[in-house]
Design goal:
Blueprint lengths: L4 E2 L6 E2 L3 E3 L9 H13 L4 E3 L15 H13 L6 E6 L13 H15 L4 E8 L6 H13 L3 E8 L2 H14 L4 E4 L9 H6 L1 H6 L3 E2 L26 H8 L2 H16 L4 H10 L8 E2 L4 H12 L4 H10 L4
Parallel strand pairs: 3-4, 3-10, 4-5, 5-6, 6-7, 7-8, 8-9
Antiparallel strand pairs: 1-2
Helix pairs in contact: 2-3, 3-4, 9-10, 9-12, 10-11
Protein name: Aldo/keto reductase
InterPro entries: AKR_Detox_Biosynth (IPR050523), NAD(P)_OxRdtase_dom_sf (IPR036812), NADP_OxRdtase_dom (IPR023210)
GO molecular function, one term: oxidoreductase activity
Amino acid sequence: MENKRQLGSADLQITPIIFGGNVFGWTLDQVASFAILDQFIDLGFNAIDTANNYSHWVPGNQGGESETIIGNWFKARGKRDDIVLMTKVGGRFGYDSKPNTKGDYIREQVDLSLQRLQTDYIDLYQTHYDDANTPIEETLRAYEDLIQQGKVRYIGASNISAERLKESLDLAEAQNLPKYVSLQPEYNLYDREKYEKNYETLALENNLAIIPYYALASGFLSGKYLSDDDFNKSARGEGIQKRYWNERGQRIVRALSEVASAYRSSSSAVALAWLLANKSITAPIASATKESHLQSFVAAVQLRLGEEAIAKLQEASHYE
């Protein structure tokens, strides 16, 4: 795939869609995970995102399952150096635990991630959830150690307040500490307000690569939810219906369907193409469990939405 994008200020070139590894060890077992990864790479993509705690929410899992599957795939396929590998630290391993970005914890966890991933370096190591009780400098000093040791190339942030993100960037600049090169926020056609109001300007000012998660709003924007009955066909349908199936959500789905029809494409591809058309977005993160999902990734990268189509989607997803 020719149209790679630079990951902010990092010396990393990534294809415009990143595979979301939360499905490994959850909706995909190891055999199915290997098959989807093989197909993803064969289509020309080169970036995978996971976390040290995926997929702890599955009964019987402890966390680390996703990294383990990816590591086994690296060992089986020998593809490590072809992949821009992103993982995260600091998130919860259970619903009663709390985010943790203490220095010693980060130094401990990176070694566990490296073991599971069967590699000696991580391209992008991200603060999964910011722990507001830990001083920013302590977290950045830990990352500094990991970079100096060659275990990590660059660092990024995910769930962090705009205030703490700015403090982190400013402190890194003032103390010559490692600086976040990316931000992984929740952002899609439905969930626009928080990113656009709080983070977009900051990201542009600091040349942060934006790699949004939930790019398809947990599948709501995929085109498979067009009526009340459709939510009964999916295990996640009830939760998605409660969160998204309101007047605005229905308006967005209709607009996506109309634009997809006009471009002879799919709703998934259009929703991803809308993100890619945003000047502040580097590459959305999206998961796939079958090859047809991957084809919508390819279509999204190739799709060039016109001004009229973008205006229609902007209007449908307008928020106060």
